């Protein structure tokens, strides 16, 4: 990182205007700069006793960090400046006489600092290093940046990253600032914290202090959270809510937030600075009949009915809210007050969704705030789930309220502020997810974020003026370290991290936590982990979603779930084998790094890299063995039993990896943390009707995983019995009717070679023979001994194969049976002029969106490549993201040259990122044309039927599969060269892949591998 800084000019480093994000220049050479530690002696840290509490506290952390690195602990002095020796002077402008005197004497220039928000300044003055800032957190961030520069990672505690070791520490004394953050309030939401964090934290830090609620999180826990927040330059927290009440679980929690200088908030369902659990612990709701009459009385502490209902229990609710604000005043902590109201339990209001009701609720809350507070306090209204409907219907809170838009829980922003509206003084915010509980399925186990996707969505939010408050749901926080840090870094300064520098950010993350020597290799592993993981959440590896072609795909009736099937094809394009192997290759790369990691860093390596990689790769291996076992058992293959054993071994490895995390690293520090189930989703028979989406649990307590669906074992007959299966089919012969047919052969195919499986359905081995009907059809091996199974690869000698289409029989014989397999060989005549672009083979052309033949802009707007944004490649999206919509055929376009050997009707499938209708129209649109035909417009929102408001089944399909799959029909008038064109109509559309189905496309998750491509 110092080298990264040296590439910047001195003036860039010192720039104080605007939102800068420069890092401190590297440590100075010994004997130069400011001597923080030299010759075994440390500088004295001096702070004013009258400074703000967060500043008075953070100097202790700085002293501890210096000791972690050097073994020498600096003395901390309050008010008294030593007459001799180096001094680090820490103080807030306007609150530290020590600093203010330097300003008054003209020795410290605070131009561009004073009056700003959270802006730091570091400068040597009269031989002393001054760390100051515009406000409390500005100082704190400057102090912690010193800690980072001397080698203390923000994750030193939460991920056991050891500090760097040095005997001498010399800091540059030049004037330097981190700049002013772009997003004012930046933070995260600890949520969905059971079982992992909810098990571990009370055991490690001690129980909650509220009588009867030992699972609460106390101030010792939150102190570690607050420290890490500030080291990451966050300032805002939504505390945990699953059965927890921040204010009640420890009377010191709010005081600790104040001591650290953290801004407290409450989630979207918890208005007026009161967590919903505070109500649930003390209220019993009345029961009413269908007519609304109370049949069983309820109660609450305010003399009401106990119902969380503004209509039916309004006075009690108002009193409850008033108490929350009075507590805020009494305990004098900094906060952002949530407005609005949702139903109890993260649902819609029980009183209905009338706009007048919500208007009355917000007005009531504002009246309470005006009555109870002597000064203004920032307020936020979060448009989560159904709440966005009020905004869509025209409800606007008062102008000073921050309006927070959200993603759809799966990393796709739902709506941007309308640029046509006048600016809001309160501004706009964003609530984003790296963890989720709900439909179509929870994802809580490991980090599944793709940095490129996060970047693209945050870039959009920034471009549309969303800069007042950002909060990310990070689940347990631990396990989501990388995406959380990226989220906060980007919020601090979006301009520092254009898409071209994402790999730089990844290397910086690796270097900060593991040192520079292996940073590139570790960053590469983490990069590919995110790329592979983003294709599908690991919790969804046992759900296949299919669409009935006879029904409208925009309707829920067309969509079927199978929670006992892999989403990847078992037989087409070697899909399941290929994706599983990619994970095994990644795990091997990570494991190879292990011995090269210094011993002190190995716990951190396991926590931040190795566990998530190895456990995910192991889960893919488990699922491959499991679902291949079920297919082979249905075919009666003897090899099915071995696959059952492999599945069970992989399950044992899953438990062993978790046990190592819990007890085998960091001296057992994380015992109980790695307890999140991730395999048994969908097991309705075991844990009930919520199983399709909810984690395995009974009575709100997580259940340990079991293998689901269960593997099968066969009782095999003694006698040999031959079965034959072929590439592209789940059937087996001779049981299936007709002759098996291999996928079409082509000299231009990119799909894996076709194969024939000969397998034993008994216990006695047998020999098989294979006889191709033409000498240019090559089978390897040509038969042999079959104990359980024998896979034979079929290839074509194209130098001898005749032109045209030929069907060649391949006869397989063994154990008294004979099966004839047909090989359809298509060897087209290709004139030289046709050899441009992608070639049809196997009845399709498959093209990654990034591999266009031409990217034709329209004025300042063009398509831009975003690396890794597609499931199998990059994504292409219009830039700038705020570009106006264009008429069909008038916007920028992507062109794809291809050679088709099939004339007639074709279907063009567009694989698009599952973006929501973030604009103000009725859906996101793009257009497709073939050659010079008129562009066909596709409204993605209407074509898929996905509704992020109702979170319907169609939406579950697109988010679970991480793709919007839409199609258009075209007519190819003649074989030969053609050009497919994809036109921008709306921004925010991301094209991942295009497949032209000429009649041979087979079902798969990713679509077929990319087709062969001629130059030009």
Q: How is the secondary structure organized here?
A:
Layout: H1 2-6, H2 10-14, E1 34-38, E2 41-42, E3 44-47, H3 53-70, E4 76-78, E5 87-92, H4 97-104, E6 120-125, E7 128-133, H5 136-149, E8 169-171, E9 185-190, H6 196-205, H7 219-231, E10 236-238, H8 246-249, H9 253-260, E11 263-264, H10 276-280, E12 287-288, E13 294-296, H11 314-331, E14 337-338, H12 355-372, E15 379-382, H13 388-392, E16 402-406, E17 428-433, H14 451-463, E18 469-475, H15 481-492, H16 502-514, H17 519-533, E19 544-547, E20 559-562, H18 575-593, H19 602-635, H20 640-664, H21 684-687, E21 697-698, E22 701-702, E23 722-726, E24 754-760, E25 766-772, E26 777-780, E27 784-786, E28 789-796, E29 804-814, E30 817-827, E31 837-839, E32 844-848, E33 854-856, E34 862-866, E35 875-879, E36 893-900, E37 904-912, E38 925-930, E39 936-939, H22 940-944, H23 953-961, E40 964-972, E41 976-984, E42 991-997, E43 1013-1014
Helix pairs in contact: 3-5, 7-9, 11-12, 14-15, 16-17, 17-18, 17-19, 18-19, 19-20
């Amino acid at each position: 990182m110092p080298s990264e800084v040296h590439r910047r000019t001195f003036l860039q480093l010192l720039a104080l205007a605007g939102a800068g994000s420069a890092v401190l220049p590297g440590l100075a050479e010994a004997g130069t700069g400011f001597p923080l530690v030299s010759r075994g002696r440390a500088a004295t840290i001096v702070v004013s006793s009258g400074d703000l509490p967060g500043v008075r506290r953070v100097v202790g952390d700085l002293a501890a960090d210096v000791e972690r690195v050097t073994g020498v602990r600096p003395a901390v002095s309050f008010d008294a400046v030593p007459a001799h020796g180096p001094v680090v002077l820490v103080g807030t402008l306007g609150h530290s006489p020590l600093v203010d005197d330097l300003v008054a004497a003209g020795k410290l220039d605070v131009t561009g600092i004073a009056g700003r928000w959270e802006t730091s300044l570091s400068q040597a003055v009269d031989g002393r290093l001054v760390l100051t800032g515009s406000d409390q957190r500005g100082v704190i961030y400057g102090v912690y940046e010193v800690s980072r520069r001397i080698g203390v990672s923000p994750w030193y505690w939460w991920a056991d990253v050891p500090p760097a070791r040095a005997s001498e520490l010399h800091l540059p004394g030049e004037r330097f600032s981190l700049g002013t953050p772009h997003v004012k309030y930046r933070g995260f939401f600890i949520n969905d914290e059971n079982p992992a964090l909810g098990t571990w934290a009370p055991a490690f830090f001690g129980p909650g202090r509220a009588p009867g609620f030992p699972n609460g999180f106390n101030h010792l826990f939150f102190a570690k959270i607050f420290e890490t927040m500030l080291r990451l330059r966050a300032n805002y927290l939504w505390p945990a809510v699953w059965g927890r009440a921040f204010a009640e679980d420890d009377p010191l929690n709010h005081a600790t937030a104040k001591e650290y200088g953290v801004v407290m908030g409450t989630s979207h369902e918890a208005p007026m600075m009161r967590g919903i659990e505070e109500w649930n612990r003390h209220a019993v709701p009345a029961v009413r009949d269908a007519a609304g009459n109370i049949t069983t009385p309820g109660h609450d502490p305010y003399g009401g009915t106990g119902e969380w209902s503004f209509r039916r229990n309004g006075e009690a609710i108002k009193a409850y809210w008033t108490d929350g604000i009075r507590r805020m005043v009494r305990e004098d902590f900094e906060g952002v007050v949530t407005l609005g109201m949702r139903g109890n339990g993260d649902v819609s209001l029980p009183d209905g969704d009338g706009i007048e009701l919500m208007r009355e609720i917000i007005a009531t809350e504002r009246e309470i705030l005006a009555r109870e507070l002597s000064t203004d306090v920032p307020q936020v209204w979060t448009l989560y789930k159904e709440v966005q409907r009020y905004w869509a219907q025209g409800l606007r809170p008062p102008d000073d309220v921050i309006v927070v838009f959200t993603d759809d829980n799966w990393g796709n922003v739902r709506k941007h502020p309308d640029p046509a509206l006048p600016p809001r003084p309160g501004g706009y915010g964003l609530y984003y997810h790296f963890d989720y509980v709900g439909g179509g399925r929870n994802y809580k186990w490991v980090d599944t974020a793709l940095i490129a996707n996060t970047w693209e969505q945050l870039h959009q939010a920034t471009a549309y003026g969303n800069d007042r408050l950002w909060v990310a749901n990070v689940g347990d926080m631990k396990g989501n370290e990388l995406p959380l840090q990226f989220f906060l870094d980007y919020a601090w300064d979006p301009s520092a991290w254009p898409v071209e520098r994402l790999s730089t950010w990844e290397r910086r993350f690796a270097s900060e936590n593991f040192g520079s020597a292996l940073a590139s290799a570790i960053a590469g592993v983490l990069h590919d982990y995110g790329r592979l993981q983003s294709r599908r959440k690991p919790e969804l590896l046992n759900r296949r979603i299919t669409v009935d072609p006879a029904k409208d795909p925009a309707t829920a009736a067309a969509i079927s779930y199978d929670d006992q099937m892999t989403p990847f094809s078992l037989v087409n394009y070697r899909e399941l084998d290929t994706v599983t192997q990619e994970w095994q290759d990644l795990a091997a790369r990570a494991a190879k790094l292990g011995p090269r990691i210094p011993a002190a860093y190995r716990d951190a390596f396991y926590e931040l890299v190795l566990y998530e990689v190895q456990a995910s790769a192991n889960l893919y291996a488990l699922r491959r063995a499991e679902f291949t076992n079920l297919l082979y058992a249905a075919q009666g293959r003897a090899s099915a039993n071995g696959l059952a054993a492999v599945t069970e071994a992989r399950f044992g490895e899953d438990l062993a990896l978790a046990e190592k995390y819990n007890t085998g690293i960091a001296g057992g520090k994380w015992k109980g943390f790695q307890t999140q189930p991730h395999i048994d989703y969908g097991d309705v028979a075991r844990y009930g009707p919520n199983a399709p989406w909810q984690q395995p649990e009974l009575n709100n307590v997580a259940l340990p995983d079991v293998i689901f669906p269960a593997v099968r074992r066969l009782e095999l007959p003694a006698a040999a019995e031959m079965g034959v299966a072929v590439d592209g089919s789940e059937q087996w012969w001779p049981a299936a009717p007709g002759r098996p047919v291999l996928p079409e052969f082509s000299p231009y195919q990119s799909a894996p070679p076709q194969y024939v499986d000969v397998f034993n359905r008994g216990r006695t081995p047998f020999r098989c023979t294979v006889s191709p009907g033409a000498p240019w059809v090559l089978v390897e091996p040509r038969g042999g001994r079959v104990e359980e199974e024998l896979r034979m690869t079929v290839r074509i000698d194209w130098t001898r194969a005749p032109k045209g289409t030929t069907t060649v029989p391949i006869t397989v014989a063994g154990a008294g049976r004979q099966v004839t397999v047909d090989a359809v060989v298509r060897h087209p005549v290709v004139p030289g002029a046709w050899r441009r672009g992608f070639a049809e083979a196997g009845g399709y052309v498959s093209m990654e969106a990034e591999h266009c033949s031409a990217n034709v802009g329209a004025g300042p707007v063009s398509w831009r490549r975003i690396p890794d944004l597609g499931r199998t490649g990059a994504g292409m999206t219009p830039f700038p993201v705020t570009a106006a919509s264009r008429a069909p055929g008038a916007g920028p376009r992507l062109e794809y040259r291809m050679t088709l050997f099939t004339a007639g009707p074709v279907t063009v499938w567009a694989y698009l990122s599952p973006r929501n209708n973030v604009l103000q129209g009725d859906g996101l649109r793009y257009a497709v044309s073939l050659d010079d035909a008129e562009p066909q417009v596709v409204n993605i929102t209407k074509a898929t039927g996905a509704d992020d408001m109702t979170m319907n089944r169609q939406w579950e399909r697109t988010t679970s599969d991480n793709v919007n799959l839409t199609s258009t029909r075209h007519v190819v008038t003649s074989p030969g060269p053609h050009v497919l064109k994809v036109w921008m109509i709306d921004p925010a559309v991301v094209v991942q892949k295009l497949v032209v189905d000429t009649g041979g496309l087979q079902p798969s998750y990713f679509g077929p591998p990319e087709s062969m491509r001629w130059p030009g």
